[in-house]
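Consider the tokenized backbone below.
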């Protein structure tokens, strides 16, 4: 059974069909890319998956349970977390505190425990701190624990945002343009980093415009154009699909050549 199943999902804004009868799936442990020209509906799909937009039609199963039209907090608790194309860190607090924000979605204590700092509260906070430090070690930021997020280089800010997403306990990570703004060396490092996440058991659904990243990291690829799914398959199959080449005006073909 797939970890994520999207079945015949549609969403309109007024008379505009932003997502038109789209179906796709992501198996546990896969890296799947969702690509397409600007305005194809990719980020809209991420907003649907994270509860920001409510669908008009269709269904979404995550780990066997329906999640369509649930609120964002419930979707995060179910095990889906995301990053954004434009990095959205708390820039004026420390690195460790950014990760702790993600940890707190799973807190087991109540307002009373926090107010009076009960043993339950102190135990949970110690556990969260240990978990946050371990995540920073896993993403290669253990040396940045006490730095302010705003002082990190761009590539490390990306890693921190991913660490915060992992801190929610997510099974599926949605990466929205993770290589945006990176030079080729940074993109290559990011590629290794994402492959390492899969090696630690995470499943990834990714939007990305950098075709060198997409073609070298994806197990499978889905292509959207004007809200419709126009192609799917292995990277080489998608790269050679005439409909995809036409949608990109030869962009993918040029990358492959």
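A designed sequence for it:
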């Amino acid at each position: 059974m797939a970890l994520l199943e999207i079945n015949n999902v549609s969403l309109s804004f007024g008379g505009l069909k932003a997502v038109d009868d789209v179906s796709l799936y992501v198996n546990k442990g896969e890296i799947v890319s969702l690509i397409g020209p600007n305005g194809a509906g990719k980020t809209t799909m991420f907003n649907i998956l994270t509860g920001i937009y409510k669908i008009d039609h269709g269904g979404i199963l995550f780990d066997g349970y329906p999640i369509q039209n649930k609120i964002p907090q419930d979707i995060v608790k179910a095990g889906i977390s995301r990053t954004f194309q434009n990095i959205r860190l708390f820039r004026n607090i420390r690195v460790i505190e950014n990760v702790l924000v993600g940890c707190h979605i799973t807190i087991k204590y109540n307002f009373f425990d926090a107010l009076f700092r009960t043993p339950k509260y102190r135990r949970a906070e110690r556990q969260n701190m240990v978990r946050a430090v371990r995540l920073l070690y896993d993403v290669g930021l253990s040396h940045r624990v006490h730095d302010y997020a705003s002082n990190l280089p761009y590539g490390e800010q990306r890693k921190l945002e991913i660490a915060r997403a992992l801190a929610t306990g997510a099974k599926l990570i949605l990466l929205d343009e993770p290589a945006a703004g990176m030079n080729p060396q940074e993109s290559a490092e990011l590629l290794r980093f994402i492959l390492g996440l899969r090696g630690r058991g995470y499943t990834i659904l990714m939007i990305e415009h950098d075709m060198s990243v997409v073609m070298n990291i994806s197990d499978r690829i889905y292509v959207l154009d004007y809200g419709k799914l126009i192609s799917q398959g292995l990277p080489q199959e998608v790269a050679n699909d005439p409909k995809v080449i036409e949608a990109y005006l030869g962009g993918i073909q040029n990358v492959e050549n």
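The CA atoms of residues 102 and 236 lie 36 Å apart.
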